[in-house]
Amino acid sequence: MNTDSDLSMRTLSTPSPALICPPTLPGFQNGRGSSTSSSSITGETVAMVHSPPPTRLTHPLIRLASRPQKEQASIDRLPDHSMVQIFSFLPTNQLCRCARVCRRWYNLAWDPRLWRTIRLTGETINVDRALKVLTRRLCQDTPNVCLMLETVIVSGCRRLTDRGLYTIAQCCPELRRLEVSGCYNISNEAVFDVVSLCPNLEHLDVSGCSKVTCISLTREASIKLSPLHGKQISIRYLDMTDCFVLEDEGLHTIAAHCTQLTHLYLRRCVRLTDEGLRYLVIYCTSIKELSVSDCRFVSDFGLREIAKLESRLRYLSIAHCGRITDVGIRYVAKYCSKLRYLNARGCEGITDHGVEYLAKNCTKLKSLDIGKCPLVSDTGLESLALNCFNLKRLSLKSCESITGQGLQIVAANCFDLQMLNVQDCEVSVEALRFVKRHCKRCVIEHTNPAFF
């Protein structure tokens, strides 16, 4: 009988750590690293399954080096609940290593409370096989269904394919969080399977997955849903950063299906336009955080649509959207009065008038980035200082019109300032020292060699 087949049929087994960590990368990285273990002379990470270890280690060399039988290791004196608590801080690969020490550790390492999360990282991991073996082990008590698993993080695993996501979709109906950032081999169909078969999924990160162009239910799932339930997906957090091929029609589909969205990040989705944002605001009225940074086709008309989110919007990033001017900023400032964070770096059309209108209407602003806005001067800073007393972070990097006088006005009024970026600004050492005296907790990022 084939040896691999025989091993895979054992009912009590634990995956080898070689399954889930690169054999050539030694060490343990702060609870998320990998360990050195290999079962292949080629250096490729492979999947292995082992039976539970014996109660005692019987290797003669280990027996010679061990303590006398009457002396018990300190860690063995800990009760089970303490051991489980210690194991809870270990990443997936280290937990599998612990399961191979002895029978007691094996039983503790597979405590269901430790398997609410699977975290795998690394470019060389055969992650499809790893997910298959792990879920099969976790499904032993509930055949074909892994009820305890709620989070799967496989960011940066470039060997993840649709097969791995299909395993998750089939075995993990209680999944609530999935992160597959940087896994560029997965496609729309695999993502559709996950969101269709995991109805409780709330957090989805597909950033850097360049083949993903949409988030929707499968056709089969859409047919099965009753008209009363609707074709809805429960996702609240969605990160599609660097999904370069996402277009307005895809965003329309996403918005129509994911109406509960509160956090949406579309950084560098370069094909999106104002029309896509119009669809978004129609369906997703609960959005609190939105990023369209580096979406070069977004203009003031897009900000007019975003402003319809009104007081619900707390975080907005429009960095490097070159078509945005004071007109768009006025729309946002007028209707989104509870805005706390605004990143408008590189929006060169913004002037002191836009900053003044923003300061007077969004008085609860805590973080503002207007770096590389050459038309913003001390006049705009004065408006900020006299209205936004809760300001904690301010970036003015490469603002050519800013001087030390403007900084002093800010420092004299915004005592809670914690971060100030004035790199590549023409400000004097005296002005920087003035800021330091009045805002004692403030970290100043600068390029003035005379100030230290």
From TrEMBL:
Residues 72-118 form the F-box domain. It holds the Pfam family DUF7885. The keyword Signal does not apply. SMART domains: FBOX (SM00256), LRR_CC (SM00367). It comes from the Eukaryota. Transmembrane segments: none annotated. The keyword Repressor does not apply. CDD domains: F-box_FBXL7. Keywords: Leucine-rich repeat, Ubl conjugation pathway. PANTHER family: F-BOX_LRR-REPEAT PROTEIN 7, PARTNER OF PAIRED, ISOFORM B-RELATED. This is F-box/LRR-repeat protein 7 isoform X2.
